[in-house]
Amino acid sequence: MLRKLKIEKNDVIKFGLYTIVFLLLFIWYNKANSPLSEYNLNSASTETMKSSSAFDSFETWKKKQEKPYLSISFKPDYLKVDDTLMKTLKLNIDSKYFKDKITPLDLVIDWNRIEPRWQVSWNKLILSSKIKMKDETVKVFMHELWHILDLYYLNDDDWFDVSDEFYRISWIAYNIKKKDAKIWDFVSWYALSNKYEDFAESFIFYIFHNEDFALKAKKNKILKNKYNFFNKYIFMNDEFFDTSFWNTTLKSYNWDSTKIWINLKKYLYYVR
Asked: Are 198 and 143 in contact, with CB atoms under 8 Å apart?
């Protein structure tokens, strides 16, 4: 009997140890598949409808900053950049819609970078100076700001990342889609790359093409859930709701949302 009790005690101890190891591996896996790991290890990777949730009371912006700021540097130091473009990027950061979400930010304008047009590492965003169109530069800039927003604001702690609410709509893992996922469940071809690009592309559509996104969401339950996520966790006061900065009908499907032309003047007037 005593021997049996010792065996059972040992089994309980082993079970406890296995559980702890499993939890540590689970936490490591989620960290390893975060946007931070993705960009550090592979920076050249191929680039209102209300909903209910168990996390209705989650305060997305509870991480307050004492002194929001934007620092800009150039590579090389003597690089000359269109002053109007720099004012445009600063205007986005200073906007009441983004200031508390994406600063502090270290922005580097890099002459040597061609492809990919960007790189993100923590709160540093490296942007190519060779993007020809100003509106494309702004959209690439905003696309990449989501990755910083995710690292700084939506990642609450090791146990709960509100971004997972979006990811689990279409994804099982980093680049493994659910079996029933269809092409029309994504706003662009690039959104099919992995769960982080799906989020960033959807983020761009919500900001720049909200009206089109909302129309698609009325016909597609998956897109409706994605649209609702932004309305619920990021733009809780209906910012960008029913807006469009595109003067003509969008194509039924696009490869990369940053390539879609926008009326930049109209957009900047809205966000300032």
From this structure: no
